[in-house]
Amino acid sequence: MARARKRGRGFVATALLVAGLAGLASTPASRPVWAADSVPATGPASASGKILAPTPPMGWISWSQFAEEIDEKLIVETIDAMVANGMRDAGYVYVNIDDGWQRYKGSRAKHPLEVDPVKFPHGMKYLADYAHSKGMKFGIYSGPGDITCAGYTGSGGHETEDAAMFASWGVDHLKYDSCCSHKDAPQAVVEEVFRSMSKALVASKRDIVLNACHCGWVNTWEWAASVGASYWRIGQDISDDFDYPGNREKYYFDVLDLIDHGVGLEKYAGPGHWNDYDMMIVGLNGKSPYLVGAGASNVEYRTHFSMWAMLDSPLLEGADVRHLDADSLATLTNREVIALNQDPLGQQATRVRDDGLIQVFAKPLADGSWAVALLNRGSATADVTISPRKDMQLEWDRYAVRDLWKHKNMGPYDIPFTTEVISHEAKILRLTHAPLKKSAKADAAEQKERAP
Ligand code: GLA
Fold first, then answer.
1. What average pLDDT score do residues 179-188 get?
2. Which of 108, 175, 178, 422 is the most exposed place for a label (fewest CB within 10 A)?
3. Taking 70 as the threshold, does the pLDDT of residue 160 lie above it?
4. Best mutation site among 101, 213, 238, 277 for ligand 1 pocket (most ligand atoms within 8 Å of CB)
């Protein structure tokens, strides 16, 4: 939350597991015990009764690159860029405005919540309509405090009128941020502020995804779905770093911190309710004027993106998508990796092996195959071996392997699979059962044996 702006201008910155969907999966007879527990009791309500985020939301959000320097032109150009560069067609449909769209800074008791007429001369409905005309969705930001994190008028005590206003604009997504206003509030109070905005959104009669942004405090994952949130932050703000020693500015989390922070939380995620590992930093390259961080290499950004996909985090890109470099765009639009994130089974990956610098994460997919990430946190290249039997308790006699970054099929194998993983890389594999076909003779012999 409260952080210094990189350029010194100080500011306060920064369940349902649907039976039908589960039924899509081939019988998870080989699913390990840990996966079977992953069914939260309740999920968020919605105006239409639909599940609003059956898969993790994908899109773009303004904060990391632009902070308060946002305006209508930027949003229109961002929408156009996402259509032109293929992001929309790869699934990135949300265009979300973060803090800084409001007209007034200061207390809601003194100011109404209005759109800044200089930044957004045609208002928000104009932008929502524009997004919708391009097959995209539109998101806005507010918070339950008197003021937001960046000091603008908040929605505290005005939930019903604000939700109705957002609905009248055609808003599809609300990032509701209590990180600053309720930092030290007890859990019951934080729960109540989200419950009351959720009720107001449902009463607005428009389906609006609610993102509970509480920076991972008071175990948000345990209760956020039951008070109406489709996803919730599991940790403090991400900085533009893969592995910074400690917490930058004693606050920020880097990519590895967030991955570590989410270990064990997979049981809270599923269709309609997700753990949020925070906005993606792919392609910021240490150059955001506002977000702190040294940037990361292409391999590290690819690992970050791959792990967010494996962990079923919302995929909200934070860089300027009008000027993405070719590597970043290729990373963000790898459809085979996106498919892991958008898999209808909605099973967040579990860390199945922790050998210190080498870690293995795995998740079952709706078609019966498995996604596996071999993460090398160390500074040296390593040979990593994965055994479906030992690591995922799969009784597979033979299996095929596909490398989702090389787009290459390997195998089948009936022994453990070994591959080289370079420093800070996550090798992303899709494993499929490839049973040995019995010969006709063996079949006949078996049948004879079974005959009475
Ligand atoms: C908090 C949130 C950020 C961003 C800013 C806006 O710090 O964690 O994601 O929304 O507020 O002020």
1. 97
2. 422
3. yes
4. 213
Question: Running DSSP on this structure, what letter comes out for residue 118?
Answer: T
Compute the distance between CA of residue 451 and CA of residue 266 in angstroms, rounded to an integer: 46
CB neighbour list of residue 149: distance below 8 Å, 6 or more residues apart: 1, 2, 12, 13, 14, 99, 143, 177, 179, 180, 181
- Contact at 8 Å (CB) between 410 and 401? yes
Which of 317, 341, 365 finishes a domain?
Answer: 341
Q: Are residues 337 and 355 in the same domain?
A: no
Domain end call among 341, 368, 390? 341
Residues 227 and 358 occupy one common structural domain: no
pLDDT of residue 26: 34
Instruction: Clarify whether residues 51 and 160 are in a common domain.
Output: yes
CB 97 within 8 A of CB 70: yes
Distance 182 CA to ligand 1 centre (A): 13
Q: In 3-state terms, what secondary structure has residue 401?
A: strand
- Structural domain total, the chain: 2
Residue to substitute in 3, 12, 14 for testing ligand 1 pocket (most ligand atoms within 8 angstroms of CB): 14
Quick check: helix, strand or coil at residue 283? Answer: coil
- Is residue 265 situated within a structural domain? yes
pTM over 0.85: yes
**pLDDT tens readout for residues 343-365:** 999 999 999 999 999 999 999 99
Query: Is there a single domain that holds both residue 241 and residue 130?
Result: yes
Beta carbon of 99 within 6 Å of any ligand 1 atom: yes
Q: Does the CB atom of residue 162 touch ligand 1 within 6 A?
A: no
Whether residue 284 sits in one domain with residue 428? no
Span from the CA of 397 to the centroid of ligand 1 (angstroms): 49
Residues known to be catalytic: 177, 237
Rounded distance from Cα 336 to ligand 1 centre (Å): 31
Q: For residue 412, give its domain range.
A: 350-433
Same domain for 222 and 269, yes or no, is yes
Strands 417-421 and 173-177: unpaired
- The verdict on the CB of residue 149 being under 6 Å from ligand 1 is yes
- 303 in the same domain as 218: yes
- In this predicted model, which residue has the larger pLDDT, 62 or 21? 62
| 235 and 381 fall within a common domain | no
Q: Is the CB of 63 under 6 A from ligand 1?
A: yes
Length of the chain: 452
Residue ID of nearest Cα to ligand 1 atom 7 = 14
